[in-house]
């Protein structure tokens, strides 16, 4: 059922929630707060083992979002990105 919800949400242009079977509440960081305040669509994910904030964005919005973050002071020292081209 979670897979069906994920597929339908992904097809509608919205970010589907990443589900692993366990419902976890993720504490958002400075980047996610700024993106929310400025109405950028994204999803906050669990922090990594070094306590680095991780967010998820649609591929089409990666460059504009990264440009906006850089323009407002989130540079490479405090923000890194990656992408997954897999299914």
UniProtKB/TrEMBL annotation:
It comes from the Bacteria. InterPro entries: NADH_quin_OxRdtase_su_C/D-like (IPR037232). One of its GO terms (molecular function) is oxidoreductase activity. This is NAD(P)H-plastoquinone oxidoreductase subunit J, NDHJ. Signal peptide: none annotated. Residues 1-21 are annotated as: Disordered. Keywords: Oxidoreductase. It comes from uncultured Coleofasciculus sp. Its EC number is 1.6.5.-.
